[in-house]
Design a protein that fits this description.
2 strands, mainly alpha, homodimer, DNA-binding, 7 helices, two-stranded antiparallel sheet, elongated
DNA sequence: ATCTTATTCAACTAAACGGTTGACAAAGAA
DNA sequence: TTCTTTGTCAACCGTTTAGTTGAATAAGAT
């Protein structure tokens, strides 16, 4: 259990190789060897990347003889989507509204004691 | 211009302090000093965090005398939301469909030359 | 039993990261 | 002009991260 699940997910997806792995796992489950093939990296490096995705809850793994196929889990995406959607909404709503103008005003202006007489 | 804009955004949001700053900027624009106040961190540390958010395109800054208020930008959220939505959809669609079963089958099974006879 | 395949573990390295302190610059206020 | 506020820059430090090589484990295949 992480103290910061959302942080772990964002952190996992910050790496382009890992994002690409996710993209490929969205098409089909794959073993470590299969996943490693297209990259110019060692199997061990991919194994590590996979573990990061697994710890973040983005990927689950089963067993098939020596192989340990990885499977993309949809659930965690909701956590992120919710967070993003929330702040995007707030940012957009605030975009052309009154409070934007108010924020730009000084304390004096807000209290009505302007310099006009 | 970053080589990996999406990575920069995910990376920026991987830090809990930065996520919290975003949450607060969603409520109202704020200066570096205002932002720093609730945390047990130096102004310089917050200034750095703000720069990371700015570089990722999550925040823009204006000028007001000595102050440099930060403002949350909604646009970049779309980039993330799009990425996430895409793979979440694919992962969900694949969840209980035929191809999940097919992937679990060996080459032999797929080619029809099973061990019967 | 031995060999091969698939994967992980352990130890190491270079670079990036989050934080600090201290000095500096820019712009108002006295 | 000098003082104060607001913010950044530079150098440094300890920890984490992404990668490597090499050894170990687990499970089939011969």
């Amino acid at each position: 259990m992480s103290a910061d699940p959302l942080g772990e997910v964002f952190s996992a997806l910050a790496d382009p190789t890992r994002r690409d792995m996710v993209a490929r796992l969205a098409v089909a489950d794959a073993t470590v060897n299969e996943l490693a093939e297209p990259y110019d990296l060692t199997i061990q490096a991919i194994s590590k990347h996979l573990r990061v995705l697994e710890d973040a809850g983005l990927v689950s793994r089963t067993r098939d003889a020596q192989r340990r196929p990885a499977h993309l889990e949809a659930e965690v995406f909701d956590l992120m989507a919710k967070w993003i959607e929330r702040y995007r909404r707030e940012a957009e709503e605030r975009y052309s509204r009154l409070d934007v103008v108010l924020e730009g005003m000084s304390e004096d202006e807000l209290e009505g004691n302007g310099e006009e007489r």
